[in-house]
Amino acid sequence: MALSRRTLLAGAVAAGAGLTSGCAGKPLDTLLTQAAQVPRTPATLTWWVSEIPARNGPVVADLIIRAFERRHPHIHVRKSNALSATDANRAAVTTQLAGASPTPDVYLGDTTWPAQFGTNSLALPLQTLLPKDFWSAYPAALRRVSEYRGAVYALPFYTDSAFLFYRKDLLAKHGRPVPRTWEELLRTARTIQRAGDAAYGFLWQGSVSESLTCNVAEFLADAQAPVLDGAGRVALHGPGAERAFALMREFTETGVTPSTVATYAEADSQDAFTGGRGVFLRNWSYAWGNAADRSASKVAGRVGVAPRPGFEGDGPRGVSCAGGWSNFVNPNSRHLGAAVAFARFCAGEEAQLILLKHAGVIPALEEVLTRPEARAVGDPTLTRVRELHLVARPVQTPYYPQVSKALYTRANAVIGGRATPAQALRAARADIRTALEGRAL
Amino acid sequence: MTSSAPASRRPAAEPAGPPPVRPRRGDGPGRVSRRRRARTGWLFASPALLIISAVTVFPVLFSVLLSFAEVRLEYGGFSIRSLTGDHYAAVLSSPEWRQALLFTFGFTVVTVLLELVLGTAAALVLERLGAARGWVLAVLLLPWALINVVAAQLWGYLFNGTYGGLTWLFEQLLGHQPDILGQPASAMGAMVVVDVWKTTPFVAIVVLAGLMLIPGDVYEAAEIDGAGTWTTFWKVTLPQLRPIMAIAVLFRILQAFGIFDLPFVLTQGGPGTATESLAILGYKTLFQNLAIGRGAAVATTTAVIVISCCLLFLRVFKAQADEGGRA
Q: Which of A93, A210, A364, B185 shows its CA 20 to 30 Å from the CA of B309?
C-alpha cells in the first residue's frame, strides 16, 4: 500500500512536470502575423460580453454582431454571457485565459485591466495592427488606460462617465441652483434635509470595491492631488490629498451622506436615489436611463444631470473617472485575424452608432457624439459628456488591483470614522508603495 | 442469527466450525489466488483511483508545487521558474494575511462554540418532541438546506443600509440608523449571526442522532442512583455524546475555516479588511491580482493550519476521553 501511494504521488508530480513543460509559450511574432490577416475561410468567434445597458428594448450585443456578420459573412460570432460585477467577471475570464483556452476569442473587459492583463500575457498587444492615427478619434484618457509600456492591449468600446444627478423639483422648491462646488452642495443638501424633504443629501459609492476607488480618484482630482507622481512613485500627500479625504468624512459626519454609504455599491446608491430618498447622486451615465424610467423610478421626470462639482477656488469642475469597457483579444484564439477584425469593428463608426442609438452608454468614438442622432436620443449625458474632465486611475501598473485595494480600504476607514484623513493617507501611501514594489499579496 | 440456534438442531451434514477449504480446479497454493484477487480488486478500483488522483491528488500537489514556484503566464500557456520559499515569506509577513488569519480564526472559534451549544440545546428539545419532531426538524433544517450564497444574499437584504428590514427595526429601537455592515465589530457580529442561523441545524441533527443512540438503561441506572436532570445531563448524556460532538466540531472547523461566500456576498471583506477571510484573501490574490504562486501559498498555509487545528483538537479530545475513562 505504501508503495502504491508513493507511485501515485510520483505519477502526479510527473504529470505536473509534463503539463508544465507542455505549456511552453508561443512566439509573439507568429501570433501577430496571424492576427494581421482577416481569414477568408469560415470562422466562429466567441465574444465574452456582459449585458450592455439597453435604451429601448433590443439586445445591443446582438445588433452589433448582426452588423458585423453582414460585413463579414463567413465569420460567425457567438455571444458568451459574462458576469456583470467587474471583479467576479475578471476572476471568471482570467481562469479561462490563464488555462490557455482558445475561447473567448474576444472579451469585453474593464478599462483598468490592460497593464495587468498585458503583463500576464492574457491580452494580445495590438499596436502594430492599428493605423498610426487610430487614437485621434478617442478620448485621450482612454488611450492612457489602454496602453502599457507602449503596447495597446484593449480597443475602445464604450465609456462610463460620472455625473451629478440631482432632484430638479427639490432645488426649485428651495430656490437653489445646481451646485458648482462641494461646499455649495453641502449647504444645499443640509437645507433640504432640514426641511424634511429628503432623508439623504448626497449619495455615492463607499463600499470596499473598485467603485470607491473611482470616487476617491475623482475627489483627489478635484483637489488636484495625484496618486502617483510623474515617475510612477506614490504621491498622495499634502493639503490637496487631505482636503479630498476630509471631504469624504465631512459628508458622513454631517449626515449629508448616510453612514451606510460605507457599504454602498453602485446599485445601492441608485436604489436610494430612485426611491426618492436623496437630493444628489454621483453615478455613472447609465444611471440616467434608470432614473428616468417611470416603471423603476419614483423620481422620473424630476431628475437633472450636471457635471460633478469641484472645490471652491480655481480647481477643475466636472471631473469624471475614465471608466468603461474595451475589447481585448485572447492571444490563444484560433482565429486571431477574425478576432482582431471584430474588436476593431466594435470600436468603429457603425458599431458606435448602434451604441449611440440603442445602448444606455456613452460611445467611445467621440465623433459620433456630435451627430444630430446624439441630440435626438434625448439623453442629457450624451450631450454633456464633452464638458467633462476625464481622469485616469493609476492603472499604469500590473499591480493596479493592489493599488486600488489600498485606496478603497483606507478611504473606507475615513468614511466610517475609524481613521483621520491624515492617518488614512499615511497608511494608503505605505500600502501603495508595497503594492508598486510587488510585495503586496 | 444461526449461531444463537441450539447446536443440536443443526443438520448433521454441516458440522459447526469453519467450513472446510474446498480444493479448486487447476488452482495453485492459496497465496496465488489471493494475489490474483488483489489484482482484480485493483483493476476494479483503478477507475476510481484515477478519478480521485485527477480531481484531488493532482490539484493538491500541483497547488503545493505552485506555491513554491515563480509562475509566469505566457502566450499559449505558462512556465515555472525557480522553486523557492519566497511566496511563503511574503504571505506570512504580510499584514493582510495576519488580519485574515485573525478574522478567520476568531470567526471559527466563536461560531463553532455557539453552534455547538445551541445545536445541542436544540437536539435535546427535539428528542423530547413526539410526533411533531419530523415537522419541527424539517422547518429547522430549512436554513441549512439553503445554498450559502442565497442565504447570504437574503441576510444582505435584511442588513441593507437603505431598505433593510433589520436596519429599519434597529432604527425604530435606537432612534438612529445603524450601519450594521459598515463598522468592523457589527459586521463581524452580523456574520456570526448568519453563520449560526445557517449551521446550528446541522449540529443539532448530528447531536440528535447521537442522543438517539444512547441506550435507555444508562438513564435508568442514573435514575436509580438518584441523579437529577442536571447531573444526568453532565454525567451521562454529555460523555456519551462526546464522540459525535467531536465529529460535528471537526466538520464545523473545516467549514468555518474555509468561509468564503458569507463575507464575499455580505461585505466583500469590508469594512476596510475587517471581514476578509483567508479564503477571500486567497481568491483576491489569485484571481484579482493574478499572483498565482502567492495565491497558492495562501491556500496551502490555510490547509496546513486547518489540518493542524483538527489534529490538535482530536489529540486534546482523545486525551480528555482517556482521562475521563480512567476517572
A: B185
**Which candidate in A204, A432, A441 is best for mutational testing of the B interface (most B CBs within 10 A)?**
A441
Measure the N-to-C terminal CA separation of chain B; round to a whole number of Å: 37
**Residue among B62, B64, B42 nearest B54 (CA):** B62
Asked if residue A220 lies in contact with residue A240, where contact means CB atoms within 8 angstroms, the answer is yes
- Quote the cell numbers at residue B99: 488580519
- The span from the CA of A97 to the CA of A88, in Å, is 14
pTM here is 0.85
- With b for 16 or more beta-carbon neighbours within 10 A and e for fewer, the A424-439 pattern comes to bbebbbebbbbbbeee
Residue B180 is inside which H or E element, if any?
none
Superfamily (CATH) of domain A5-160+322-391: Periplasmic binding protein-like II (3.40.190.10)
A1 part of contact set with chain B, CB < 8 Å: no
Shortest CA distance from A119: residue in chain B: B73
State the DSSP string of A184-214. HHHHHHHHHHHTTS-SEEEE---STTHHHHH
B182 vs A contacts (CB less than 8 Å):
259-263, 416
Which of A9, A19, A412 lies closest to B270 in CB terms? A412
Q: Which of B68, B72, B78, B87 should one mutate to test binding to chain A, selecting the residue with the greatest count of A CBs within 10 A?
A: B78
Could you read off the pLDDT tens digit of each residue along chain A, which spans 441 residues? 344 545 544 554 455 544 444 445 678 888 999 999 888 889 999 999 998 888 877 899 999 999 999 999 999 999 998 887 777 889 899 989 988 899 999 999 999 999 999 999 999 999 999 999 999 999 998 999 999 999 999 999 999 999 999 999 999 999 999 999 999 999 999 999 999 999 999 999 999 999 999 999 999 999 999 999 988 899 999 999 999 999 999 999 999 999 889 999 898 999 999 999 999 999 999 899 889 888 889 999 999 999 999 999 989 999 999 999 999 999 999 999 999 999 999 999 999 999 999 998 899 999 999 999 999 988 999 989 989 999 999 998 999 999 999 999 999 999 999 999 999 999 999 999 999 998 888
Please, where in chain A does CATH 3.40.190.10 lie? 5-160+322-391, 162-321+399-436
**Residues A406, A426: Cα–Cα separation, whole Å:** 11
User: Computed from CA positions of residues A14, A16, A20, A22, in that sequence, does the dihedral angle turn out positive or negative?
Assistant: positive
Minimal CA–CA distance to A251: which of A193, A196, A303?
Answer: A193
Query: What was the ipTM of the complex prediction?
Result: 0.85
Q: Which residues of A touch B281 (CB under 8 A)?
A: 441
Whether the Cβ atoms of residue A157 and residue A48 lie closer than 8 Å to each other: no
Asked if B68 contacts B83 with a C-beta cutoff of 8 angstroms, the reply is yes
Give me A193's grid cell.
434635509
| Contact at CB, B76 and A15, closer than 8 angstroms | no
Name residues whose C-beta falls within 8 Å of residue B79's C-beta, 6 or more positions apart in sequence. A20, A23, A24, A25, B71, B72
CA torsion angle A134 A140 A141 A142 (round to 10): -20
Size of interface A-B (CB pairs under 8 A): 162
Q: Using CB atoms within 10 Å of the CB of residue B133, give its burial: 0 to 12 exposed, 13 to 18 middle, 19+ buried.
A: middle
Contacts of B284 in chain A (CB under 8 A): 401, 405, 441
Q: Tell me, what amino acid is at A332?
A: N
Please check whether residue B290 is in contact with residue B73, taking contact to mean a CB–CB distance below 8 angstroms: yes
For residue B182, give the nearest of A28, A263, A439 by CB distance.
A263
In chain B, the residue whose alpha carbon lies closest to the alpha carbon of A402 is B289
Whether residue A163 contacts residue A307, with contact meaning beta carbons closer than 8 Å, is answered with yes
Cβ–Cβ gap A409/B62 under 8 Å:
no
CATH superfamily of A162-321+399-436: Periplasmic binding protein-like II (3.40.190.10)
Residue type at position A350: E
